Amino acid sequence: MEYFLQQLINGITLGGVYALIALGYTMVYGIIQLINFAHGEFFAAGGYMGVIFITWLAAQGVHPYVCMGLGLVLAMIYCALLAMAVEKLAYKPLRRASRLSVLLSALGMSIFLQNGLMLTQGVYDRPYPSELTQGGFEFGMITISYMQIVIVALTALLLVGLNLLVFRTRIGKAMRATAQDKTMSALVGINASRIISLTFAIGAGLAAAAGIMVGFYYGSVNYTMGFVPGIKAFAAAVLGGIGNITGAMIGGVIIGMVEIFAAGYLSSEYKDVFAFIILIAVLYFRPTGIMGENVDDTRV
Amino acid sequence: MTTRGSKKIWITVGIGLLWFLALLWPLLGIHPEGLEFGRTFDVFLKVAVAAVSITLLYRLRERGALDMVESPLRRLATGAQAVVARTPKWVLYLVILAVAIIFPLVTKRYAHDIAISVLMYVCLGLGLNIVVGLAGLLDLGYIAFYGVGAYTYAILYSHFGLAFWICLPVAGVMAAIAGCIIGYPTLRMRGDYLAIVTLGFGEIVRLILNNWMELTNGPNGIISLKRPAILWPDFANGFSFETLYLKKLWMMYYLILIITILTIIAVYRLNHSRIGRAWEAIREDETAAELMGVNTFLLKLLAYASGAVFAGFAGAFFAARMKMVSPESFTFLESAMVLAMVVLGGMGSIPGVILGVVALVALPEAFRQFELYRMLVFGGVMTLMMLVRPKGLLPAKRVGKRSEEME
Questions:
Q1: Which of B19, B196, B378 sits opposite A35 (nearest CB)?
Q2: What's the pTM value of the predicted model, to 2 decimals?
Q3: Is B386–A78 a contact, with Cβ atoms under 8 angstroms apart?
Q4: What is the dihedral of CA B141, B143, B144, B147, to 10 degrees?
Q5: CA dist B156 to A262, B152, B286, B319, B343, Å?
Q6: What is the pLDDT of residues A270-284, one digit of tens each?
Q7: Chain B closest CA to A146's CA: distance in Å?
Q8: Whole-complex ipTM
Q9: Confidence category of residue B400, pLDDT binned at 50, 70, 90
Q10: Mean pLDDT, residues A60-88 taken together
Q11: Of B229, B233, B223, whose CA–CA distance to B255 is shortest?
Q12: How far is B404 from chain A (nearest CA, A)?
């Protein structure tokens, strides 16, 4: 029973991280129907930026918790800028091209960014300052580390913020309108290209936050770390119904749980396989996901 | 273009460069010891000079200042094309074949090595070309079939001691079976979803190869495989047949050359058959093809399986050539590479795919000193090609406008 509860807590933590990454996929897909392959790289870049900013700030003698907060914000801004640049360069000129061209362009960007990170940061793991995150609560056999609490709290905070942005503000309204019909929203005076740019920026910012949290949670970052979580987060987005923000959160938590429980009870070597199997099963039996409505199958 | 248009381009380039600086500096300049600017500006200046000169060239070309260089070149190209068009096709093929046969006799080991990997990727590229170029199914897990082929030979040899020549067709069959297993549940999906699911399957295959210790020996791979052997007539004591292992690299070159030629012929015949036409119909408009009575599901599965067969052959050859296999050779990046070759060269066109392979395998060898930047450039080129020439270098002749582009 303790083991089960412990796994449950670990699963929620990991699920929160996946949910944050999945939001970027789902928002971008909802608005321009593109699988942004480079999204996993924003996550990795966020992790690196976190360690770069935090170690620098710490060396300046800033208080550790201020370091973490400020590093998080700076990394999110950095990744937002990066995502906007990638969008302008690699996706915007292809708005009218075939789906295959855009997908390949995204793939090229992903490889480009990954190797850019490798060339500037080196091939080895970059350690996170672990002294900031030690400790935790103990309830009998179960431990909840401070970092897990921070991850869950921060994830919840960001998700609530995003929900407020999308459903309560004018920008959010414009985003939803653009996602529904680009031409019509342009006719009523919404600058679609700016909205798309903004969507990329928000998605990448959330991915960056996830990158930093993973960095703290596992203690290090690596330039290849974006690929597998990227695919799993995509699976989460599909599971929740792609284009659906609430769905992406639920999907992320489910994928995180499945991975942790599969690793704990079945086989830790094959834990990555289960996310892929879920992805395939969902696409096969319910391509619109848990929360999705039925769309006509030409879009799928 | 007017002066205003020109101004706009320069402003865009300027903003882009500033943006690049803002992205580059934190990566290179922030260290715990303090801030540093030297290295960032070093890199930034190089990129800035390159960007400005490319924009300048582009502007000059638009104004017609480069016509005196460009028009003779273009005339030369048209002239060459006319000569090629006038010569009968079989003469061209004979010349290419002769060059391919003479090649190892006049070159060294290093060149053989590159030629072998070029031919191997040609097999892979042509196989993927059936799936992506002809049937229009985006497959990001293609390298899994290559892996299945390679491991088929490795396992059959190391457990049962079977010879390469028996394993080669078996590898093809195993890859085709894997293709059907993967294809059956996935082929109802279209477009992006298919791409991501095939990617998932490719990763599953790699994870299995990596973790099934009893069968595949896990991450260590299977080593000390034998090269293929042939019976060679020996006249030393009268007349007898000797078993001769293809130890020399040039012998392996001829082997892969034969496999490649067979692949080219097979793909050509498939392309110009009824099945090939049906694939193209599916590529152009799946719904319309289905309405016209094409059994789309079966044909898509067939495309998948026959694409996999060639990957299986190439995989078995790869195992025999390297004398070992390990899961590291079958990563997603390899799939992306092969896909990039097909797309860069021109989907659906056999000369295009060959050109794409040569461009992506042979050219990086020429710039060996920039090895580190290889994948960076590769990613950049992939994006750039999609922006400037999405149909590839040598596009296929029979390609319609895709229905989804009409929106």
A1: B196
A2: 0.88
A3: no
A4: -170
A5: 32, 6, 40, 12, 34
A6: 888 888 888 888 877
A7: 25
A8: 0.85
A9: low
A10: 90
A11: B229
A12: 7
